[in-house]
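Hi there,

I know you've been waiting on this one. I reran it after we fixed the sequence typo, so this is the corrected version. Both the input and the resulting structure follow.
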Amino acid sequence: MRHQIKLLLLTLLLLASSDSVWAQFTFVTNTDNTIAITGYNGDGGEVSIPCKINGLLVTSIGSYAFSDQLGLTNVTISYGIVSIGQGGFEDCINLAGASIPNSITKLEIMHSHTVLALPM
Protein backbone atom coordinates (compact mmCIF):
# COMPACT_ATOMS: atom_id res chain seq x y z
CA MET A 1 0.00 0.00 0.00
CA ARG A 2 2.79 2.46 0.88
CA HIS A 3 4.54 1.67 -2.38
CA GLN A 4 1.36 2.42 -4.33
CA ILE A 5 0.91 5.75 -2.56
CA LYS A 6 4.53 6.72 -3.24
CA LEU A 7 4.11 5.75 -6.89
CA LEU A 8 0.91 7.79 -7.16
CA LEU A 9 2.54 10.84 -5.56
CA LEU A 10 5.56 10.59 -7.84
CA THR A 11 3.29 10.34 -10.90
CA LEU A 12 1.30 13.40 -9.80
CA LEU A 13 4.52 15.33 -9.19
CA LEU A 14 5.82 14.50 -12.66
CA LEU A 15 2.53 15.49 -14.28
CA ALA A 16 2.43 18.77 -12.36
CA SER A 17 6.02 19.61 -13.26
CA SER A 18 5.32 18.93 -16.96
CA ASP A 19 2.39 21.36 -16.89
CA SER A 20 4.48 24.04 -15.20
CA VAL A 21 7.20 23.62 -17.83
CA TRP A 22 4.63 24.05 -20.60
CA ALA A 23 3.12 27.06 -18.84
CA GLN A 24 6.20 29.15 -19.62
CA PHE A 25 5.52 28.87 -23.36
CA THR A 26 2.74 30.22 -25.51
CA PHE A 27 1.99 28.03 -28.49
CA VAL A 28 -0.47 27.16 -31.21
CA THR A 29 -1.54 23.84 -32.61
CA ASN A 30 -0.83 23.61 -36.34
CA THR A 31 -3.24 22.02 -38.83
CA ASP A 32 -1.06 18.88 -38.87
CA ASN A 33 -1.48 18.50 -35.07
CA THR A 34 2.03 19.69 -34.24
CA ILE A 35 2.96 22.56 -31.96
CA ALA A 36 4.59 25.88 -32.85
CA ILE A 37 5.99 27.83 -29.92
CA THR A 38 4.98 31.48 -30.33
CA GLY A 39 6.26 33.04 -27.13
CA TYR A 40 8.00 32.65 -23.80
CA ASN A 41 6.98 34.10 -20.43
CA GLY A 42 9.27 32.22 -18.06
CA ASP A 43 11.92 33.53 -15.69
CA GLY A 44 14.84 33.03 -18.06
CA GLY A 45 18.10 31.38 -17.10
CA GLU A 46 18.58 27.98 -18.67
CA VAL A 47 15.56 27.00 -20.75
CA SER A 48 14.80 23.64 -22.35
CA ILE A 49 12.35 23.72 -25.22
CA PRO A 50 10.38 20.47 -25.00
CA CYS A 51 9.85 17.99 -27.80
CA LYS A 52 6.16 17.57 -26.85
CA ILE A 53 3.44 19.71 -25.35
CA ASN A 54 0.08 18.18 -24.46
CA GLY A 55 1.21 15.00 -26.19
CA LEU A 56 1.82 16.74 -29.52
CA LEU A 57 5.21 17.14 -31.17
CA VAL A 58 6.81 20.57 -31.05
CA THR A 59 8.16 21.20 -34.54
CA SER A 60 8.87 24.92 -34.69
CA ILE A 61 9.83 28.05 -32.83
CA GLY A 62 7.94 30.97 -34.31
CA SER A 63 9.20 34.36 -35.42
CA TYR A 64 10.27 36.51 -32.46
CA ALA A 65 9.11 33.81 -29.99
CA PHE A 66 12.01 34.49 -27.61
CA SER A 67 12.94 38.01 -28.71
CA ASP A 68 14.02 40.51 -26.06
CA GLN A 69 14.29 37.87 -23.33
CA LEU A 70 17.08 39.53 -21.37
CA GLY A 71 17.07 36.86 -18.65
CA LEU A 72 17.66 34.00 -21.07
CA THR A 73 21.20 32.66 -20.62
CA ASN A 74 21.16 29.20 -22.21
CA VAL A 75 18.76 27.34 -24.47
CA THR A 76 18.43 23.65 -25.21
CA ILE A 77 16.24 22.87 -28.20
CA SER A 78 14.83 19.34 -28.30
CA TYR A 79 15.45 17.02 -31.22
CA GLY A 80 12.49 17.05 -33.60
CA ILE A 81 12.12 20.80 -33.80
CA VAL A 82 12.80 21.58 -37.45
CA SER A 83 12.56 25.35 -37.79
CA ILE A 84 13.29 28.60 -36.01
CA GLY A 85 11.45 31.60 -37.38
CA GLN A 86 12.87 35.03 -38.19
CA GLY A 87 14.18 36.75 -35.08
CA GLY A 88 13.34 33.73 -32.93
CA PHE A 89 16.01 34.73 -30.40
CA GLU A 90 16.53 38.34 -31.42
CA ASP A 91 18.04 40.69 -28.82
CA CYS A 92 18.62 37.97 -26.24
CA ILE A 93 21.79 39.78 -25.28
CA ASN A 94 22.60 37.54 -22.30
CA LEU A 95 22.22 34.30 -24.24
CA ALA A 96 25.62 32.68 -23.75
CA GLY A 97 24.94 29.23 -25.14
CA ALA A 98 22.54 27.18 -27.20
CA SER A 99 22.24 23.47 -27.86
CA ILE A 100 20.71 23.08 -31.30
CA PRO A 101 19.89 19.62 -32.66
CA ASN A 102 20.63 18.55 -36.21
CA SER A 103 16.88 18.21 -36.79
CA ILE A 104 16.82 21.98 -37.48
CA THR A 105 16.49 22.33 -41.24
CA LYS A 106 15.22 25.91 -41.44
CA LEU A 107 16.72 28.87 -39.61
CA GLU A 108 15.57 32.35 -40.57
CA ILE A 109 18.04 35.07 -39.61
CA MET A 110 17.38 38.61 -40.69
CA HIS A 111 19.46 40.72 -38.33
CA SER A 112 23.22 40.43 -38.17
CA HIS A 113 23.25 40.62 -34.35
CA THR A 114 21.24 37.39 -34.06
CA VAL A 115 23.80 34.62 -34.12
CA LEU A 116 23.25 30.92 -33.55
CA ALA A 117 25.76 28.25 -34.47
CA LEU A 118 24.31 25.20 -36.14
CA PRO A 119 25.86 21.78 -35.61
CA MET A 120 27.98 20.51 -38.49
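Quick highlight: The chain has one domain: 24-107.

Best,
R. S.
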